[in-house]
Amino acid sequence: MVPENSEGVSPKHTLTTRALRLAIVRIGLVSLGGGAISYYVNSTTIEQDVTWQLLLSTEQSLHRESLPFREIKDLQRNFLKEFKEILARPGMEARLVEDFQQIFYRHEDGSYTQRPQLFEGQPLADGRQFARMSATYAPDNPPDDNTRARFALSYLLSHKYGSSTEGRLFNFYGVVPEKGFPIYQDADIAKVFTYSGPDALKLETYEFYQRGFGTSGHETLFTRMYWDFSNNAWMTTIATPDVADVSGKHAILACVDVLLDALMDRTAKPAMQGAYSTLFIDDNEGTLIYHPTVMEQVKSSSGMASIQSLQMVQHYPLLEAVPDLAPGHARIVQTPDDIVAMGRIPDTPWVLAIHYPRTLMVPAILDNLAIVVILGLLTLLVEILILRSILQKQVAHPLFRLVQATRRLGVGKERLYPEQLPTRSVDEIGELARAFGKMAERIQDAHERLELKVQERTRQASRLVAIAKERERAETLLLESEQRYRDIFDNSMDPLFLLDLTREGLRYIELNPAFERAIGQGRTELIGRTVEQTLPAHAAAAVIAEYRRCVDGGVPLDEEYELDLPAGRLTFHTTLIPVIGANGHVQRIVGIARDITERKHAERLLHSREQEFRALVENTPDIIARFDLQCRFLYANPAARDLLGHPLDFLLGKNACEVSPDSDVARFFHHAVGQLVDTRDVTEEELSISVPVRRGKEVFSYQVRLVPERDRYGGLVSIFTVGRNVSAMRAAEQRLKESNAQLRQLSSHRESTREEERKRIAREIHDELGQQLSALRIGISLLRLQFGNDQPLLVERVQILMGRVDETIQVVRNVATALRPSALDMGLISALEWLVSEFSSNTGIACRLKAPTARLELDDERATAIFRLIQESLTNVSRHAQASQVSIRLECLAEHVLIEVSDNGKGFDPAQLPKGTLGMLGMHERGHMLGGTVTIDSAPGQGACVQVNIPLQIDPEFP
């Protein structure tokens, strides 16, 4: 800061202003001259630096971009090598033909695709999986074994290499020249294409197919860039054929589809800032792969746009320089607008050119100019700093000391001394400082005298203010204390009251609303009145006696008493607190009462319920016990104590195993309680024990139920156990089981006897009565032969008799068959076939039998029972089912015979059958007698199914 001088010199003509103006002019001239020299000297150097950096960056890009294509070439060569080695192994062609049959499915149009679900990962019979593999094969002629083997091997290797490169390469596939196309990709080609002929894909139209199989060489080829609409991206296909045979034909073509998006993204962002790239094919036309300004034309031309077709004249020098390019090495090509570094990407037919616009070098030149200008400005800054230092020491610092002294003088807290002023200066500032010092000394003396008077008056005023504040604070605390007391007193749920001890008696001087509600009287009726005046005589006498005890003792009292009040008979717990006066005697009583009527009622009710519970538990014949979570006894009723053989005081607190270590009862309770603690749920188990001391060696059974007891938070605290003696019930069940077994044995014997009797009667009817009827028929026939010619009337009579004899013979046959079908003697299968035939002919219902072709090795009892069960089922169908078809299935398993009779009739609800249905009951009983089961499954409108399981051997313990 440069102030005006004391003589009124204009700021424009001060020494500081002139010095600064001259410094600015000098530095400006130096900066302009240095900038002009820098522009002309460094322009050549900057262009050389740009060229060197551009060459280095381009060669790095060429080698970086060649890496994935070199990897693809190596991968394809490995694929072809492995393909050739595997195909040449002995016996491999036959195995691959088998793989072809497993993997591929032939369509009616002669084409092949992989079998359904293989793409989704469904394994073959040998467990191999080919997820994400898809294939189509449309040969012009039926394939031979060699073609099948090559296509199957191509499928297997495409899956191997495709899955190993997943995430790095887009699609991998090996194509055979017979139009076989297996591919590892995200979409199932068998679902994408709809086959309309044997060559729906038309592989011969694809560039990689035409070029790969159209040459006898085996060099890697790149297709033109094409737009893939499914991925919305540019792609190219890299294909490598195997070595051709002597006829110039190839066996397979290894292909990889490559997405060009990443390459284009990297090409769009060269390492040198401001540069841009061109990527094109070395094909004389300069077919474009990437150029930042013409990608729309490239897309609209389906990748056919080129430098020549778009007439990009400024890039013609690039096409002229292509023949001289070596793979991986860059060279500089000068164009009017750009410096271009270009080179071939190794292992590809592509040329990469990186353009650096010449206009980008102008900022670098301007940067040098800016450096020179900045140096000049820095010089100006140094001169300004030097000048500023001089001004600060000679002008600013002395003035600052005067300003500080003026401020201290105005504040008046410190005395100002001459040493604190710039009085040693010999110029005008020193003279001003000395005059200011004298004035300050006079002002400070007057200020000190005034300060002493002010301090005295302040001390007097402070004492008065302190007294007023203390009085105000005491009043505030008193009001707050009174308000807190009143809030607590009025809002307490317990009755509160204050009694004053007077000559007339104990008089109410304060009470809260809770006391009014308890007494049944209002505040105006109680304040100022004595206890005798407010309570009934008998209640007042009891209360006053307690109050007198408190007054005489001079200590607080706690008492409970019942009072008959207008609100009813109430029980109170009262605390009486004596208040000692200044004379040392009790002057007042503070009373706190609590209505405990409901609690007392609950206690009496609880005591009554406890007595009832104890009477029930102590006298019940059931065992009742309570355990804690460690299976320690908390309680045991007399029945439980009698069972355990120990008194209650011995059991309490002891674990069940500690009470009787060798007892089954103790082990049972220990196990059951532990299980309930784990499950936290009600459990019910049956305990069988032997009580040798009190009940001899008889075994008793108890049905024991364990119930968890929880606290109000749901936590498990104890286990309540109830056990009931069910020995008599178990004995009755055993006797009933034995009785049922005897009845079934009797029924089985009766059924066997009846079947034997039927068999005997049927045989006698057939043998005896049948022979007699046959003899009678022969006799009648002879009678007709002897006398028929002479007596025509006799012939008619004989014919009638012959008819009746035939009817009688048929009746005898029917009776014998009803008693026991003779077909049973030829085996169960023959008998069932006869039964099915008879059923269909008699009822008109179609009946189908499914039975083993081999003879069943069954005893006569089981064969007869199975026949009768099926016969009864068919009878029920004909009577009730209204069915049009019946199916009988007989199956002999390892340990039992399975019979199933089902129909398509109207069905029924098995649960609604009358209890007296003897047919169903007989079927169940017949199956049970042989140790089997009969199951009936039916529903209204859904037909019926009878299923019978008959064991081949009856369990000896079966009842």
Structure characteristics:
25 helices, disordered N terminus, kinase, phosphoprotein, 20% strand, phosphorelay sensor kinase activity, five-stranded antiparallel beta sheet, 50% helix, histidine kinase, transmembrane, alpha+beta, nine-stranded antiparallel beta sheet, single chain, Beta-Lactamase, 959 residues
How would you describe this protein?
With 959 residues, this protein is an alpha+beta fold. Among the domains are: 89-227 and 237-254, no CATH class; 426-491; 493-601, 2-Layer Sandwich (Beta-Lactamase); 620-725, Beta-Lactamase (2-Layer Sandwich); 728-820; 827-959, Heat Shock Protein 90, CATH 3.30.565. Helices cover 50% and strands 20% of the residues. The chain contains 25 helices and 29 strands. The strands form five sheets. Strands 1, 2, 3, 4, 5, 6, 7, 8 and 9 form a nine-stranded antiparallel beta sheet that branches. A five-stranded antiparallel beta sheet has the order 11-10-14-13-12. α21 packs across α25, α23 (828-843) runs parallel beside α24 (860-881) and α24 runs antiparallel to α25. The protein starts with 14 loop residues before the first helix and ends in an 8-residue tail after the last strand. The relative contact order is 0.04. The model is unreliable at 1-9, 194-198 and 691-696 (pLDDT under 50).
